[in-house]
Write a structure and sequence with these properties.
single chain, six-stranded antiparallel sheet, four-stranded mixed sheet, 25% helix
């Protein structure tokens, strides 16, 4: 199975040069209503998504929306995009694991002073999802986050349906036939030398996350970049936008020659069938 991403030439250049894909926060994507569907506690700040389509046929709406006047590109990759590597904690953390755990993100980037990446990325069924389109997504998630305050004043939070987050959109967006990778990233506290297993850290981090949740404070990042498997980069397939110029094609060919071994570029199936309207 292949998935596709419509974008501009500048983004293609950055993907090829750095070999990464950028995940954007859900409260920064183009569908405003989606981020507002999670009830009184705005968890869209904690959801980071990389958005693709699994539709093999070219999409005129997506050429219009995500490229520069239909002169950008469509990137095509196999669904196995990321570079999974053994997850190893720093030696000073004195951690052991039973068996090998593979992750698309190195351990030192999962737990930092600013954020914590939840381990759903290790389970591909949690990390990847086909977006479902329905009339109203609010009933699904309006009670996904529940905060309970005990008579003692102690508060606890329950988060349910995590595996469904960022997995539904309004039917108005059905033309995208979207496929997503989804990360859940929470605010953190400064990590002690012993790592997140430090007793004092374990004692403080739940209340810190709860406080951020109630006050609507997200992690101190707006995006997150993940390394692409080098073999996937080497075999990237590029489709030029329907209104691309000969100069655009030359630029794409130069990028592929510089950063890939077997990257290919082809013209849009819509070339010669569409033009900018004359007004």
């Amino acid at each position: 199975m292949k998935i596709h991403h419509y974008t501009n030439l500048q983004t293609l250049a950055l993907i090829l040069k750095y070999g990464t894909l950028r995940f954007n926060r859900l409260d920064r994507v183009d569908d405003i209503t989606e981020a507002k569907a999670y009830g009184p506690y705005d968890i869209s700040k904690y959801l980071f998504v990389s958005c693709w389509t699994d539709s093999e046929a070219e999409s005129i709406p997506q050429w219009h929306m995500y490229t520069n006047e239909m002169t950008g590109v469509r990137i095509s990759f196999p669904i196995e995009i990321f570079h999974y590597q053994p997850l190893r904690a720093p030696a000073e953390w004195n951690m052991t694991s039973a068996g090998e755990i593979l992750s698309p993100i190195l351990f030192e980037r999962l737990f930092t002073d600013k954020y914590i990446v939840l381990p759903n990325i290790i389970d591909k069924k949690q990390f990847e999802r086909k977006v479902q389109y329905i009339d109203d997504i609010r009933p699904i998630f309006e009670n996904a986050v529940s905060v309970k305050i005990e008579p003692s004043g102690e508060a606890t939070a329950t988060i349910s349906k995590v595996g469904d987050f960022a997995g539904y959109k309004n039917k108005a967006w059905e033309f995208q036939s979207e496929f997503r990778f989804v990360m859940f990233i929470l605010p953190s506290l400064p990590l002690p030398p012993a790592g997140f297993s430090d007793p004092e850290y374990i004692d403080k981090i739940p209340s810190h996350i709860l406080n951020c949740l109630v006050k609507g404070i997200g992690p101190e990042i707006d995006y997150f970049d993940i390394q692409i498997n080098p073999e996937v980069i080497d075999n990237i397939e590029i489709t030029l936008g329907p209104l691309s110029t000969a100069a655009d094609e030359i630029l794409v060919e130069a990028l592929l020659q510089e950063y890939t071994k077997n990257g290919t570029v082809s013209k849009s199936a819509l070339s010669g069938t569409i033009r900018r309207p004359m007004r």
